[in-house]
Design brief:
By secondary structure, the protein is α/β, with parallel strands linked by helices. It has a single domain, classed as Transcription Regulator spoIIAA, CATH 3.30.750. It is built from 5 helices and 5 strands.
């Protein structure tokens, strides 16, 4: 699993690639939280490069989202495909989070919905 972050103003996109499972979930959680700065308003997690997500991966994403919420940082997910999209749907996580097809849409909508556009 690999994470890369890119910043645009007060918004951060974290691109994740590979598998998110019991062996990598902790690293994902730590990597994502390390990328968030005090001045950030929006975090978008781009999962288009993820081929597999386990329940441990879902939990890591949920923990990150809850931490960000406590910091008043808007969080959304984009790029769900194939088996990952199916896991999000079956688990109901696609109803817990704001999920967008494309990164640009996620950035624009998340910023607008957070009142920080």
């Amino acid at each position: 699993m690999d994470c890369r972050a890119s910043r645009d103003g007060h918004s951060v996109v974290v691109e994740v690639e590979g598998r998110i499972d019991g062996a990598t979930a902790g690293a994902l959680e730590n990597s994502m939280m390390a990328e968030v700065q005090e001045t950030d308003n929006v975090v978008v997690c781009d999962l288009s490069g993820v081929s597999y997500v386990s329940s441990a991966g879902l939990r890591a994403i949920l923990v990150v989202a809850k931490r960000l919420s406590k910091q008043s940082v808007a969080f959304s997910i984009c790029g769900l495909t194939g088996p990952v999209a199916e896991v999000f749907h079956i688990s109901g996580f696609d109803r817990i989070f704001q999920v967008y097809e494309k990164r640009e849409e996620a950035l624009a909508e998340t910023a607008a919905n957070s009142g920080r556009a």
